[in-house]
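Input chain follows. Return structure tokens only.
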Amino acid sequence: MKAFRINPQELIGGLALLGFGGAVMAQSSQYAFGTINRPGPGAFPFGVGAVICLLAIPVLLEGRINKSELAMPQLDRILPIILGIVAFALLITTLGLVAATFAVVLLAALAERPVRLPTATILATGLAVFAVVVFIVLLKLRLKAFW
């Protein structure tokens, strides 16, 4: 029998998905589910939580690997992505959707080696335009495009 090791990244990711999906299902169960013909406000989030839990299963099973060496997470690549998400959350209400989109894309681009800022700037511009058109123009969400 071959010995296997558990990849901690896959295990943590799978457990996080399972926990998040379970939390969504638990929270949505406080709302009415409705009927099959007229679903209530809790039906869709409950279904999404169930799908997330189902997607966690292959992630957990993939965590069982047969490799002798496991790569350590590269914090210099994870940190810019986390900082980009935090910057987006902080900037969306103060500076608007465009600045928040630029912040998340440009900070996340720092995780790529080599860093290609011109490409990231073009991507940020396209995503900002797309976000403004979809969320502000079409969906009419009450977000500020600019400060």
